[in-house]
Amino acid sequence: xxxxxxTVLTLAVLLTVASLAxxxxxxxxxxxxxxxxxxxxxxxxRVTKEGSPDFVPVAQRIATFDNDGTxxxxxxxxxxxAFALDRVKxxxxxxxxxxxxxxxxxxxxxxMKTLVASGEKGLAExxxxxxxxxxxxxxxRTVFDxxxxxxxPTKKRFYTDLVYQPMLELLAFLRANNFKTFxxxxxTVEFMRAFAEKVYGIPPEQIVGTSxxxxxxxxxxxxxxxxxxxxxxxxxxxxxxxxxxxxxxxxRPIFAIGNSDGDQQMLQWTAAGTSARFMGLVRHTDAERxxxxxxxxxxxxxxxxxxxxxxxxxxxxxxxxxxxxIYPPER
Amino acid sequence: xxxxxxTVLTLAVLLTVASLAxxxxxxxxxxxxxxxxxxxxxxxxRVTKEGSPDFVPVAQRIATFDNDGTxxxxxxxxxxxAFALDRVKxxxxxxxxxxxxxxxxxxxxxxMKTLVASGEKGLAExxxxxxxxxxxxxxxRTVFDxxxxxxxPTKKRFYTDLVYQPMLELLAFLRANNFKTFxxxxxTVEFMRAFAEKVYGIPPEQIVGTSxxxxxxxxxxxxxxxxxxxxxxxxxxxxxxxxxxxxxxxxRPIFAIGNSDGDQQMLQWTAAGTSARFMGLVRHTDAERxxxxxxxxxxxxxxxxxxxxxxxxxxxxxxxxxxxxIYPPER
Lengths: 331, 331
What we know:
- 2 copies of one chain form a homodimer.
- The first copy, chain A, has helices at 5-25, 35-48, 79-91, 104-109, 112-117, 119-131, 136-147, 165-176, 189-193, 196-200, 240-248, 264-271, 304-311, 319-322, and strands spanning 62-65, 180-188, 207-218, 224-234, 255-258, 278-285, 292-293, 315-318.
- Chain A is an alpha/beta fold and 331 residues long.
- In chain A, strands 1, 2, 3, 4, 5, 6, 7 and 8 form an 8-stranded mixed beta sheet that branches.
C-alpha cells in the first residue's frame, strides 16, 4: 500500500493531536490505567462535583501524604539518615575525639555493622548531634547545602530527584481540585521544609513531622534566634500521626496515603470520618526500578497496615504495575 | 437660596455615589484617617507592588495576629476563662463534691475573691477539668454550644460579637492582598478553632496556640478517637510565640500585631527578618466603648512591649482615636 507524502503527514498530525489531547485530559499520565488510577480519579470527581451526594466543600478537602517511601524513596537508609551520616563526616575535623568514640567512629570508618549494633541509642546520638545545637536558620542551610551536593549511593542522583513522578502528578491533581495537600511524616519538619516547597509544591506551613524542642534566645549581638535543643518535642509516627494531624491541621483528612505500618493510624483516623474519603498505601513491588520490600523490611515495614488495607478495601498502589515511570526524567 | 427639587435630587445622588466610591476604595472604612491607617495601607502597597524594592512574593506574605485583646476583647476576664467557669457550673450536677471543694466551690458561689486567691494552681485546675478528659470532638461541641448561648456579663452580647470590626477589615484587606493570616495566641488552639473560621475567616490549620497533650485511642466500639489529656503540650505565649510560629508555620511573618507583653517576642522575631515588615500593637485606650488598660493591668499587661514599640517606631494603634467603631453592628 502506497501512501502519498501528504496522507502520511496528515496522519502524523492527527496522531500527534490525539496524543496531546489525551495527555491534556489525563491528570495522571504516569499512572497505568487500571482500578487504582480509576479509584483516585473517581474519588476526586465525586467529592468535587456540586450536587453530588459525596460533595465535600473546598475548606474540608484536606489530603495528607506520608513522605519517606510515599513521596520519595527510603532505601537503603532513610535519606534524612544519609544526611546525618554525611554531617558527621563534615563535622569530624572539629571533633577529633570521634576518631575513637562510638558511634561516630563507625560512621567515619564506614563500618555499618558496628553502627547498626549501636542500636537506637547510637542512632539517636547521631541524629541529635547533627540536627540540634544550632539555630533553625543554620540547620536549614546545612540541609540546603547537602541537597545540592550529595548523591544517592546506588541511583547516583540527587536525593530530591528520587521523588515519585506519579505522586507529583497526584499532588498537582488534588491541588487543581482545590485540595490542600499536607505532608504528615515521621521525618523531621525542618529537614523536609528545606525542599518540600520546591520539590512537591507543599509550603512549610503544611508540613507535619517529628520535631525538636526549640528555644527563643537573643544572641550576643542582640539578634533573636531559635536554638534547636537536643530534645525531641514530638514524634509524628504511628499513633502520633493522627495526633499531629489534629495538632497542626485541626481537620480530619478526606484523603490520606502512606506506605508503612507507621501510617496505619493516620489511615484509620481518616477512614473514621463521615464524608466520602480515600485511604491508600504505596506498595514497594519494583525491585528493578526502585526496591521491593514489605512485611520483613527494617525500613518502611508494611505488614499490619497491609492486612487492614486489604480487609477494608483501601487502595494498595502496586508500584511495578501501576506506575509507568518511578522518578522524573534526569535534569 | 432656592433649589429646585431636581437640583437637590441630583446633589443627593452625586453625594451618595461619591460616598459609595470612597467606601469602595477604602479597604479599612472603620479606621480613622491618620498615621496608623496610612502606615498599614502604605506597607501593604509597598510589599505587593511588583518591581518595588520592598516587594515580597506571595508565599512569604505571612501575617500573625494575637487573639485576646487584639482580635476580640479580653475583659473583665479572658473569654476562654469565662467558658471554663460556665463549664464548671454546667458540670456541677455530676460533681456533688464541688459544693465543698475549692476552687470549684468558689466558682459555684460566684466568689471571685476566693477564686483569685486559689492562684495559678487553682485556675489551672479549673482549666484542666473543663478542657481535658474528653475527645477532641466532644470538646469542640461544648465550645460551639457555649458560643451560641453565653453572653458577656456587661456588654450583653455574644462573645463572638465582641470582635473588633477594624481588625476584621484588616484581616480581609491583607487576605485580599494575598497574605496568609494566622492567629498566634496564648489561648488554646481547639477553643479558637471552634469559631475562628466563621468569625475571622481563619481556618483551623492557621491557628497557633497553647495546646494539651492528646492521645490516639480506639474506643470500645472500635472507633478511633483523640483523647485530651490533663497535661500542657505547648505554651504559646511570650518567648513561646516565635517558637510556635516556627513550629507551625515555618516562615517568619512579615506582619505581626499583638496587644500585650506576651506578644513582645513575636514582634521582635518579626522585626528581625530581612525584607520589609510591619510590627504593631493595639493599645486599649477606650474606657467608654471598650476598656482602657495597659501597664498595670492583670489581663493584657502592656508595659515592656510598649516601651520597645515606641523606641523602635512600631505602630501603636490607639483604639479610641484610630477606630470609628469597635464592634460589628448588632446581629
